[in-house]
Structure formats: C-alpha cells, structure tokens
TrEMBL record:
Its EC number is 4.2.3.1. The modification N6-(pyridoxal phosphate)lysine is found at K113. Residues 105-423 form the Tryptophan synthase beta chain-like PALP domain. GO terms for cellular component: cytoplasm. It is an enzyme of class 4 (lyase). The gene is thrC. This is Threonine synthase. InterPro entries: Thr_synth_N, Thr_synth_N_sf, Thr_synthase-like, TrpB-like_PALP, TrpB-like_PALP_sf. The keyword Hydrolase does not apply. It comes from Agathobaculum butyriciproducens. GO terms for molecular function: threonine synthase activity.
C-alpha cells in the first residue's frame, strides 16, 4: 500500500516512511491511496479474535510493509492485559435508547489516546529500522492534555527516541498537568506554552517546517517525528476499535451482522471520528457519523452551514479541554478522501485556512460529506446535566468529553427520530476530570487534586483508576513556561536529553 500527502499525491512513500516522518514536507498529511476491504473471511476471523488479534488484522491491511508476525507481536505488547486492566481492551457498555458506550480509556493514562499511543512506539521504532534511519527520532507533541501524557507513557525510555511535549499553560485540567509534569524517563521533556492548544499546535508545525531547525538537528544525529494524530501511525491503530465494537455488539445480540450502526464521537482534532470513517470505507456498516463538539463549535458550523470552515472566532476554555480546538487537523484528510484524493483542491483550501483562517468546500464535495455526517454541540452546563442524569437514571459515570457526545447524540435522536443503535466513543475516565464531574454530581470539592479522586470514589462507589491514584506523592519534574514566539529556542533542549 502506497501513501501520499494530502497536498501532493505525486510522491508515493511506504507506510514505514510515512510513520517515521509524521508529516509530509509540504505540510500535508500522509494518507493511504486506497481503502482495503474487509472480506467475509476477515469478519469471521475478527469475530473469533480478541482485541489484540483484531488490531493486528486491521493494521495489516494498511501497513503492508510490516509482517503479520511483527504486528501480532506489537499488538500483544501494546494491549497487554496488565496495561489495560484485563483482556477486554475496549469494552462496549449498552445503555438505554440506542446508546452503546465504547470505553476507550482502560489504558495506562485513562484516556483514549492510549489505544494508539501504546502501539505507536512499536510502529515507529520498526519504521525507523525499515527505512534505514539511524538518527534519533525526536517526537514533538502538541497536546490539549491527554495526548501529552499518553505519548510520554508510550515513549519514555524507548531506545532511539526522545520526546518533547508542549501543552497550553492554562488549557489543561489539574490532573492532566500533574500526570505530565511527574512523568519519569531519561528521554522526556515537558514545556508549557503561554497560549491555547491551537497556539501550541501551530508552534509545533512551525518547528516541523523550519529548515534551519531540521538541519541543526540533523547535524546532531536527530530527526523530527510526530505522535499527534497527523501521524498515520497514530491514526491507523484507532480504526480497529470501531470494528471491534461492532463484533462485540453482534456477539451481544444488540445487532445482527450486516446491520448498520451510527457512530458518535466527541471531537477535537477530528482524528478519532476519521478513524471510524476509514473503518466504514473498509466495510463497517455505518449509517451516520455524529460529530460532537463543545462550545468551540467550529466543526458543527462546518457540517451545518454548507461546508464553510471558519476559525476566526472566539476560543473558549471549557470543562472538556481535550476538545478545545479551532483547527481540526484531520479534517484535511476527510477533504482529501471525500474529493476522491484531490490534492490540488486540498492544498488550495489549506492555503486559505493558513492565510485567511477560513475556506469553503465545493458543493459537490460537501454533498458527499453531508450525506454521511451529522453534527451538534453542547455547552458546559448541558454536559454537566448529562453527567448527572446519566448517573441518576442509568447508574453510568462518564467524563465531560463523553457527556458532550451523549448529549449531542440525544439531541440528534430527538431531532431526526433515527433509532439506529449508536456507538458513542467514551474517551476518558471520569476520574481524569474529577472536579467537573464532582460538581456535576453536586458533590463538594477538595483543594488537593489527588484527594478529589477519593471524593468522587466515595460519592459514586466507583474505584479510582490505579494509575491516577498512584500520582499521590509524586514530585513534579518540569516547570518550564515559554512564550509561543520563543518555541524554536526550546528545540535545543532535545540535545541534552
Ligand atoms: C483527544 C480527545 C478527544 C478528541 O479526539 P480527536 O481525535 O482529537 O477528535 C476527545 N476526548 C478526549 C478525552 C480526548 O483526550
């Protein structure tokens, strides 16, 4: 399988090359040039496999320069039972009125990013080997909170790699910050940026496209790579859990093989929902994708207002910080796919986004997108109501991001009357956003963030995840804060790791 940039499909590269390099030199995102189909035999194998087997099978369809043995080995390590609290890596919890919560947060950092970032270090180190790369891969990560910790956990002390994480100084939850600044490992660095997530992401993109920086790193035997969802190696592992959820729903009798489902995803950078879209292209029977946003509803407007994307708007800090994003990077891949791989068109739109902060998709392309996607948004108070109601009515405790998706799904169902069983991505443990969840339940807040875990636990009788409880007593290691204008100067830190 060949990969090309969304902005120039002339130059074809291997999966290993795309993963090792993260982003294309023209600033575009690497994409497969075709969608491999799941055969009847594949579906039979998938149904009989555990999550590790399902992941290896799906990855094998895309990563054709990796052997089946390699991928099986990576999957068994990445999704080891001791890392995900058992063999049920991504369980589906069936609730009322068509809701099927796909819990993606049983990994070591309690957010769905682990599903990809426990796999990525295996894919990346193998990709470096396969492409004959001898330099140290320096992984730069812009995070709205969850990616940073998941990437640190995945890459710490992985030979041949260094990792540097940038997070917005006031844009992450206290628990997210604590998780990052207490990270152990010799090859890690964590930097706070004055600004929001978009500032951090743009700054990291600037490092990637700065020729002088690349040359200087090269001289010191280093190269840049990415663990954000712009990296295909980050996106590919996410496809498997939608297919896995479908198999589990068939096994549970919720649906019959071949029945359609909807997929509703709390969305920020558009990576998670795009993985579901790719699963559909492989043959997963999906009726509608429902894109859920918080008050930063640039995507809702895009889908609801005829394909006009406009980031020129106020940025809000919300109780679902991992979705506080105005530039959804992976929408670029959707445009590429929906326009039948039209690189010229994508390059033009992305150019406009860069210079004007907005663009409008051609009508014929948007018509295709509109046929498959619905969208909605939900503010903090409705998200809090949803956490409260879900707990009281269905005894299900969810986090703020998941609550946004549940609410948007309920609105969609009421508006359209569509009763198709719906997979709702549950993207973080409620304990990761303790304060907001305790407030939503009407509990009393404590000052100390680790003590909050016990408060929520006592309030609900649900035990706090062990990796979060273990943060008590850990000493922060990183306290550097820089202006976004000075981000290039932080690259020098990599040398000393
Ligand atoms: C990252 C994240 C999201 C958004 O996912 P995207 O792939 O960026 O759209 C939603 N919820 C949580 C908890 C996250 O960590």
């Amino acid at each position: 399988m060949d990969y090309v940039s969304t902005r120039n499909k002339e130059r074809k590269v291997s999966a290993a090359y795309a993963i090792a390099n993260g982003i294309a030199p023209d600033g575009g995102l690497y994409c497969p040039t075709a969608f491999p189909a799941l055969t009847d035999a594949d579906w039979k194998t998938l149904a009989e496999s555990d999550y590790k087997g399902r992941s290896a099978l799906i990855l094998g369809k895309f990563l054709t320069d990796f052997t089946a043995e390699e991928l099986a080995d990576f999957a068994s390590k990445a999704y080891a039972d001791e890392k995900f609290g058992g063999a049920d890596t991504a369980p589906v919890v069936k609730l009322g009125e068509g809701k099927n919560l796909l819990e993606l947060w049983h990994g070591p950092t309690c957010a769905f990013k682990d599903m990809a970032l426990q796999m990525l270090p295996h894919l990346l180190t193998a990709s470096l080997r396969k492409t004959g790369e001898t330099r140290t891969a320096c992984i730069l990560v812009a995070t709205s909170g969850d990616t940073g910790k998941a990437a640190l956990d995945g890459f710490h002390d992985v030979p041949g790699t260094k990792i540097m994480v940038y997070y917005p100084v006031d844009g992450v939850s206290p628990m997210q910050k604590l998780q990052m600044v207490t990270q152990e490992g010799k090859n890690v660095e964590v930097v706070a940026i004055r600004g929001n997530f978009d500032d951090a992401q743009s700054a990291v993109k600037r490092i990637f496209t700065d020729e002088d920086t690349r040359a200087a790193l090269d001289k010191d035997g280093m190269m840049l790579s990415s663990a954000n969802s712009i990296n295909w190696g980050r996106l590919a592992p996410q496809i498997a859990y939608y297919v896995s959820a479908y198999c589990d729903m068939v096994a549970a009798g919720t649906i019959a093989q071949g029945d359609k489902i909807n997929v509703c995803v709390p969305t920020g950078n558009f990576g998670n929902i795009l993985a579901a879209y790719i699963a559909k292209k492989m043959g997963l029977p999906v009726n509608k994708f429902i894109c859920a946003s918080n008050r930063n509803n640039v995507l809702t407007d895009f889908f609801k207002k005829g394909g006009e994307y406009n980031r020129n708007r106020d940025f809000f800090t919300t109780t679902s910080p991992s979705m506080d994003i105005l530039i959804s990077s992976n929408l670029e891949r959707l445009l590429f796919f929906a326009s039948d791989f039209n690189d010229k068109l994508v390059a033009e739109l992305m150019g406009k986004l860069n210079t004007e902060g907005s663009y409008k998709v051609a009508e014929d392309v948007f018509a295709k997108i509109e046929a498959e996607f619905d969208a909605g948004c939900c503010d903090d108070s409705h998200a809090a109501d949803t956490i409260n109601k879900l707990w009281k009515d269905e005894n299900y405790l969810c986090d703020t991001h998941t609550a946004v998706a549940v609410r948007v799904y309920e609105d969609y169902r009421a508006r359209t009357g569509d009763e198709t069983p719906t997979v709702i991505a549950s993207t973080a443990s409620p304990f990761k956003f303790c304060r907001s969840v305790i407030e939503a339940l009407g509990g009393t807040l404590e000052n100390d963030d680790v003590t909050q875990l016990e408060v929520l636990s006592q309030l609900t009788g649900v035990p706090a995840p062990a990796p979060l409880a273990a943060l008590a007593g850990k000493t922060p290691r990183f306290d550097r804060v820089v202006d976004k204008a000075d981000i290039l100067s932080t690259v020098g830190l990599l040398k000393d790791l």
